[in-house]
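Q: What would this complex look like in 3D?
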Amino acid sequence: MNGAESLVATLAANGVDVCFANPGTSEMHFVAALDRIDGPRCVLGLFEGVVTGAADGYYRMTGQPAATLLHLGPGLGNGLANLHNAKKACSGIVNIVGDHATDHVRFESPLKSDLEGIARPVSHWVYTCKRSLDVAAAGAQAIAATRDGALGRIATLALPADTAWGPGGAIARVPDRVPLKPADDEAVRACARTLARLGERALLLVGAAGVGERGAPLAAAIARKTGCRVMAEFYSPRTAGGRGRTRLERLPYATDAALDKLKGADCLVMAGATEPIGFFAYPGKPSQLKAAGCALQTLCDARDDVPAALQALCDELGARAVPPDTPTAVDLDALRRASTLDADLIGHALVALLPEQTIVVDEAVTSGRAFGNRFAAAAPHDWLTVMGGAIGFGLPAALGAAIGAPGRPVLALEGDGSAMYTLQALWSIARESLPVVVVVFANRAYRILQGELKSVGAGRARPPEAADSPRGDAHAAASQGVHAVSGPKATRMLTLDAPALDWVAIARGHGMPGASVQTPEAFIRETERGFASQGPYLIEALV
Amino acid sequence: MNGAESLVATLAANGVDVCFANPGTSEMHFVAALDRIDGPRCVLGLFEGVVTGAADGYYRMTGQPAATLLHLGPGLGNGLANLHNAKKACSGIVNIVGDHATDHVRFESPLKSDLEGIARPVSHWVYTCKRSLDVAAAGAQAIAATRDGALGRIATLALPADTAWGPGGAIARVPDRVPLKPADDEAVRACARTLARLGERALLLVGAAGVGERGAPLAAAIARKTGCRVMAEFYSPRTAGGRGRTRLERLPYATDAALDKLKGADCLVMAGATEPIGFFAYPGKPSQLKAAGCALQTLCDARDDVPAALQALCDELGARAVPPDTPTAVDLDALRRASTLDADLIGHALVALLPEQTIVVDEAVTSGRAFGNRFAAAAPHDWLTVMGGAIGFGLPAALGAAIGAPGRPVLALEGDGSAMYTLQALWSIARESLPVVVVVFANRAYRILQGELKSVGAGRARPPEAADSPRGDAHAAASQGVHAVSGPKATRMLTLDAPALDWVAIARGHGMPGASVQTPEAFIRETERGFASQGPYLIEALV
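A: Here is my prediction, written as structure tokens for the whole assembly.
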């Protein structure tokens, strides 16, 4: 067994079942090993950002790290933005990056780069293996490094070519997972006293692990029992939604709106949450969103078993979870007869059209903004959003989620601007015949930035407040009544209409069927067709 | 004038005439400033790798740095691979990267990242501006930092949002360029003695600046006069070629072939070249390619005026440049009647079809390998190749070269694998109506890697020699007669045929017309059509 084979065997022995790969020459021993060792399923991406974003989506659905296979420093660089997103999502990933042979790196060759330097800003753990005999052990260390309590971490293992082709060591085992920290009785009692005493002047802020099927009803029960308010953090790697699931109100993205929500809270009780901070800074506005003098009290850390802590708090308070009300169903026939296709109508239609257990990946930016609450009336589903604000997450995450949850339909909501960053994922989705329906909201603009420009372009020294999205809010900004000063040069930086992107042609070019729609009836028909096909399908919605 | 406006004005005042941009919220002040300040021409890219690769291509044609406009650490990350390539090409680039406001970065927000850490591995100069009043001066420092004698450098300027929106300082001027170091008389005389004494046992190795229209005839004259051998480095950011231009033989990419060429050389006389090092390392083969005991003697550094040093050497030796022989013209009609379309025929046809002063961007990997020497019979042209080995350089560089050399036709040679990395460049080329003909060699495989796999897959402990290309050589490897062991899993990592990429559809999706061809006649007809259109055109050649 050579070093590469010992690594493939070690991944397989420790539950790393999938490898998203974009290999080059220095990774050929790893690729060759795939046919000799019963190792991970390998999924090819034609660009490294596809590979790393897929690993993020995969982890969110499985809780298990996938491996990535990348080609030297520049290949890792191409995957960097989605590693940033995965790091912020606390997704576990084992990056395997081929590098020059250990004796070769001291010379200046074209592909020589500071691989560890590139890895470090997006990795919790970085290690360059120096001997082929150690590769299996280093692989096991990398897998172990992806675990931090309930959270996942990014581990990057650099593999010089000679450690792949030289003799390998024994298959290495990763220690069993450490059980999560149980609820801290003292913290539970203290938080119970705070919530009972302050009532609506306390706010229970719930992090990602508390918005799932187990945690959300418990958090709602605590609010019902004590009169406190309850909110979820704005971002969550995976939120359980739909009929029969308890939906927690989210802290708004916009600074002003968030300040408003947190006004009047004398204490934030933190259940796996972190202190609320603005997405961007704005002149004269605070970065910290809690009111001056507001206390922070910790029920549990995000690394801990957050649902268990919420259950303990319920028990302490004698609170009991109850099923949520069933929201009014959507009248699809009425929508079909409507005349105008816009994002609002699409949102309503999707509520009615969503198959049971769909995984929704939301990177629709301006167009998808209002969808969240409405989907309480949809079939039970999971909702994944970008966690690091770097565009290009959606299509790769849809690929990874579909691989991680076989048989479940996936709906990817994309802006036409955002989908362009990692469109190569369409090919991998088509190749793997995955049941992914992609809806592209084709407004032919960086609409979100048009709003920002309108506001800053008036020559004011201070920019406006942005709203629910990583890159600002066109609608909020426009509604402030700021007079737009957008000349031809700036406008040209924010429009995608000349030439117009033809998303059906792009999809076909990647081997994916699709259709372009401009009426409600056509949108509903094509969406039904897409889900019924149980394969890849792209719908370009001209909105 | 705010900070962003002071920067735009400073760029314009110092000859930075073009900005390749993919802006986000934190760059909106810069975008807004474009309409108020008579600044650089802004070219929008829909992915950051397009932006940075375009800046590389632009510099190679103009010798002037372009600016890039990028959105925080992850946006810079997306541009990293092509910055790596640009750094290895010694192209000058001013990266302007928006960041969070200075008071905001201490908090954990989704887009917070180690921006300087991401920038450092691909930058010679990294600076975060802290005050809006200093932005203009920092911009001037960044421009100055792109200059290192005859070479260009990568300068990355991080601009926290508050330094863009706060009050700006006065427009700053960059000092005049320092004149290049003239030829060192002593070095010239010493090198002249070596070459005259050793004759064919000396090898004059010429770096990038010596392969242009001025340097190459001088180097050839020196060889003629002294009997020494002369070679160019394998890689060069820009090589002048075609009829009437002197073409220097290149040092081979493949380690074995390069060792062979350097055997018998007792001294390498270096004219702006660096010591020859293998692209990859292989077991039992040296990284350093010169023969044991071979001396290195420096005529001049790559930072110096290499053609001037070659001229001085000619003068010292009494050598005189003569025009090269005119090679035999290609019979296009005979090619038109041929039955099989393959890379070889395409190469011959392009020699006949190439318009005067075409800029050829070569990222055809396996398919374009044999083109180099043959193009001596083509019309005068410039030839650009990737310098850092990171795939995804070609289409962005074609965009940047076309912007940098208005009116000149551009021919981009792409593999179907390589073109996928930064295909979004097609849209920018179409939008700017640039005369770029793209030829995609559609072999529907990572053909270069298939060769590597065949070799390493046989279970031998040592990999084979690779040949003329960053990722190995299918043909060379296959011809070694190594028995291939490529099972279904490995094969699946190296083929792009299921589904097949449809490059005409992909082009149409990006607003670019095109055609798919499978016969010599069709290839010639469509290439003529493409060049005649003087606009963007893509030809998918099924080879």
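A: To summarize the key features: Chain B touches chain A through 112 residues (CB under 8 Å). Confidence is low (pLDDT under 50) at residues 457-484 of chain B.
Q: Very helpful, thank you.
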